TrEMBL record:
InterPro entries: Glyco_hydro/deAcase_b/a-brl (IPR011330), YkoP-like_dom (IPR054467). Coiled coil: none annotated. GO terms for biological process: carbohydrate metabolic process. Residues 244-354 form the YkoP-like domain. This is YkoP-like domain-containing protein. Pfam families: YkoP. It comes from Deinococcus wulumuqiensis.
């Protein structure tokens, strides 16, 4: 795994804000995560005390799941038997918190009986000395845990909540694994930092302003939907007709397509059931009479029952520019099937008649 140099000396409280972007860009060999086209989810469990380590092992027994246990070096002295039991059970031991030096790292690895290759440092614990010590031992800073699960990402859970969360993730099509077993696990690059900044500054702001409803709770869910109080042209309906605009979860679609176009197509097809259920259950969408989206994928949508309409030339070129920016932001090298986007639409009644019974069975996902 490649690394790039970091500024040699950073001092003072103001520098704490710099560590997060530096690590997101791969400084000190920081990990980014796995391939976003697979349903694997790296699960980390903080176990700061022997009691919590024991509870985690107890809750994991019989689940068939293996996780990454975040272990302070002190556990090598206070809970050696539990560390060895964790290794025998197939769990990954990762470090947690500040270390006093190479001696503690060596003791943790020796007692656990496995090589420690990853470590978590909280924002308040990050400093050049600590990160250089880890790098000297070829230990990689772990990626930040995500607030919601994403394919190829990491999620943190307390020992007490393990069983409930594991059941929930599996029901949504995720495959919980230790971080080291994420398919395509790699170190971060500056491009990952740029993508993160784009998502926070552009995607998140657009989602908030558009009141987007997220329909990606399943591991291969790719749809989002926004309620509108009007029918934009070229929809052939009165201007004040309530509508619902479809949007794709771009990073997830790119990941699925990079793995396999067929996998992406199946995920897209399964997601129609999510849209139908939202139309039937979400109060914000109760009045929507038309479902529409502006897309380059109008061919598959036409096969799914949508009517395709040409956009005005200026509008089509404007949307086309936006789609090209998305492709740059998410790093897809796959060329679009069509040059300019079009609008695809279907009435609410027709959509529910066609897709209202679409299956979104538990456990189906990009791994099937």
């Amino acid at each position: 795994m490649s690394r790039f140099a970091c500024p040699p000396l950073l001092h003072g409280p103001w520098t704490r804000a710099l560590w997060s972007p530096l690590l997101r860009a791969g400084a000190f060999g920081a990990l980014r995560g796995g391939h976003p086209g697979y349903p694997a989810l790296g699960v980390t469990v903080p176990v700061p005390t022997p009691a919590e380590l024991g509870l985690a092992l107890e809750r994991l027994t019989g689940t068939g799941a293996h996780v990454t246990l975040l272990c302070p070096p002190a556990l090598a002295r206070t809970a050696p038997d539990l560390l060895r039991a964790a290794t025998r059970a197939g769990h990954e031991i990762a470090g947690d918190g500040l270390t006093r030096g190479a001696g503690e790292l060596a003791l943790l690895q020796t007692v656990a009986g496995q090589q420690v290759t990853a470590w978590r440092l909280r924002p308040s614990e990050r400093n050049g000395a600590a990160l250089r010590t880890l790098a000297a031992w070829d230990i990689h800073p772990l990626p930040p845990a995500l607030p919601a699960p994403e394919p190829g990402g990491t999620a943190e859970v307390s020992p007490a909540d393990l069983r409930v969360r594991l059941d929930d993730w599996r029901a949504r099509g995720y495959r919980p694994v230790p971080v080291r077993e994420l398919p395509g696990l790699r170190t971060a690059t500056p491009a990952d930092l740029a993508q993160h900044v784009y998502m926070r500054l552009v995607e998140d702001r657009f989602s908030a302003q558009s009141h987007l409803i997220d329909l990606t709770q399943r591991a291969d869910g790719v749809m989002r939907i926004a309620p509108l109080d009007h029918a934009p042209p070229p929809l052939p309906f009165p201007p004040r007709t309530p509508t619902a605009e479809l949007h794709l979860h771009s990073p997830r679609v790119v990941g699925l397509a990079a793995r396999s176009p067929l996998t992406a197509y199946r995920a897209h097809t399964r997601s129609w059931g999510d849209v139908a259920r939202a139309l039937q259950t979400r109060p914000e969408l109760a009045r929507a009479q038309v479902v529409f989206g502006v897309t380059l994928l109008f061919g598959p949508l036409e096969k799914a029952g949508f009517t395709v309409a040409e956009l005005p030339p200026l509008q089509a070129h404007w949307y086309g520019l936006g789609f090209r920016l998305l492709r740059l932001a998410y790093g897809t090298a796959r060329p679009p099937s069509e040059g300019l986007p079009k609008m695809a639409w279907m009435t609410r009644e027709a959509f529910l008649a066609r897709h209202g019974g679409a299956g979104t069975e538990s456990g189906t996902g990009p791994g099937d």
